[in-house]
TrEMBL record:
Family membership noted in the UniProt record: Belongs to the sigma-70 factor family. ECF subfamily.
Protein name per Swiss-Prot or TrEMBL: SigE family RNA polymerase sigma factor
Species for this entry: Streptomyces rubiginosohelvolus
Domain RNA polymerase sigma factor 70 region 4 type, chain residue ranges per copy: 104-155
InterPro entries: RNA_pol_sigma-70-like, RNA_pol_sigma-70_dom, RNA_pol_sigma-E_actinobac, RNA_pol_sigma70_r2, RNA_pol_sigma70_r4_t2, RNA_pol_sigma_r2, RNA_pol_sigma_r3/r4-like, WH-like_DNA-bd_sf
């Protein structure tokens, strides 16, 4: 890689790392996983920088790499976990009415399958359109709509009595 290409990548990595980390944190639910996912994404961008740097929207390209890496890693880890832990009961978080909403939402997001979680984060947290999410995840718009709808129903049911809009009075 030429020095000017390396400098362009380093400049992008410095400015884009925070945005990538924020989305990675929402997807992973923990700082270590988000850091790993962000670094993996940046490594993949570096590896294919010539192609990535020619993208019309470099941030969208990077977010696509991030989300696809997350989904692939989760599928792999779920498959490994199932192979090693067939009958282990899964702990169920029980959000208490006084719990911090952010912590509760992250715990509930972690219960969603990786692809559905990615759709909810991209659609409602990053405020991307249905078309954009479908493009990022290589699926139809109707899949995004139905998965988001089902996921929101599931999240609302698990939220129970937690007051979403209270100010903690």
């Amino acid at each position: 890689m030429a020095d000017d290409e390396r400098a362009a990548f380093e400049a992008y990595a410095r400015t884009g790392q925070r945005r990538l980390y924020r989305t990675a944190y929402l997807l992973c639910g923990d700082t270590e996983g988000a850091q790993d996912l962000t670094q993996t994404t940046l490594a993949k961008l570096f590896q294919h920088w010539r192609r990535a740097s020619r993208a019309d929207n470099l941030d969208a390209y990077a977010k696509t790499v991030l989300v696809r890496t997350f989904v692939a890693e989760r599928r792999r880890s779920v498959r490994d976990l199932l192979a090693h832990n067939r009958n282990a009961p899964r702990p169920q978080p029980n959000p208490a009415p006084g719990a911090d909403l952010r912590v509760t939402l992250l715990a509930l997001l972690a219960e969603l399958p990786p692809r559905a979680r990615a759709m909810v984060v991209l659609r409602y947290w990053d405020d991307l359109s249905v078309e954009t999410v479908a493009s990022l995840l290589r699926c139809s718009e109707s899949t995004v709509k139905s998965q988001c709808s089902r996921s929101l129903v599931r999240l609302r049911a698990r939220m129970g009595d937690v007051q979403l809009y209270s100010t903690g009075s």
